[in-house]
Amino acid sequence: MSVSAIFILDVKGRVLIHRDYRGDVSTKFADKFMSKLNESEDSGKLSPILHDDGVTYIYLQHSNVYLLAVTRQNVNATAVVVFLHRLVDVFKHYFEEVEEESIRDNFVTVYELMDEVMDYGYPQFTEAPILQEFIKTDSYRMEQTAVKPPMAVTNAVSWRSEGIRHKKNEVFLDVVESVNLLVNSNGNVVLSEVTGVLKMRAYLSGMPECKLGLNDKVLFEAQGRNNRQKAVDLEDIKFHQCVRLARFDNDRTISFIPPDGAFDLMTYRLSQNIKPLIWVECLVEHPSRSRTDYVVKARSQFKERSVATNVEIILPLPSDATTPVTRCSQGSAVYAPEKSALVWQMRNFPGGKEYILRCHFNLPSVEAEEERQHRMPPIKVKFEIPYFTVSGMQVRYLKVIEKSGYQALPWVRYITTAGNYEIRV
Description:
Distance between the termini: 49 Å
Strand order of the largest sheet: 11-13-9-8-23-21-16-19-18
């Protein structure tokens, strides 16, 4: 990608900051952008990317300012949008709030930052902790000494500084999977998907090299270990920038020098038929014209050694339901009138168990309830299952190698949560 200029505009389109990187656009394009933006709003066809007379405008609105990238070349628009978001994150790191007043009050620092984050239209460094090592918010009051740029700016590891020291060298890895499930009113699974993320917190001294091994199906097939251990077929894998992609493509080894602190090492997705972990059935009865009874059965369909925690089943009720009375075999149920729903909460839900909730309430008429039955929202389920992954993802090893030879303590934890988990009634 190659950006010609970056503008920061107020809500009326007036230029607050302008940084020209290639010399092929002028400030008049900011006025053209606002005209084009107003036309798009009037026509109801708003888009983050506008094109006019051979010039592309890619913008981001944050608070009461616009961040606008202008280019005459055929750039990767998604990369430019990501860069603008990273630029907002850098400004937040310096000014807390990114708005017109903070931009005006810190315009000198803004220009310094824009000189560093991009060079001749190409993104450079957008890691705020690294930039803050040599660009200070009160830089004009510093002593007149030569500022030596940190090593992170001059080598390939821009996300980590040298000289980091910790009294205790530890690395924590959380394998977090979210289950997205949609069941139709006939009890058939319409959508079944697992999205996962490897969340890491690294507190390691020096410049450590980490190696991570997973039960990756592609790796096991390449090594001829198809039947020895359960393997997972990962899709849509996305890595943090610290991962050496060439090494992963070559032998499926996840090798990286981690940033200091918390970050998402990897995200993935699995499209497979998943047995619903918690199955919910709702039986509706009408004992009289003005009364409706619900019998709700919740059944856990995972192994007995696992226990779901913080379980919450949100059962929609008609908006004009009055005085719901509930009785449940586990946990507690509370009527939430602002949600027009009954919230059934269970602190623990062991595997292989079934619990029942009975609820009855009054309505103006049963006929009115029957008319709106098909428009009722779906039942929503929330839960967490620690020490469990629905996909079978396993960390085979996590090694930390550092030239000083210290021993690091790796900790691995698994958890499965409910994403968009809905059952239609």
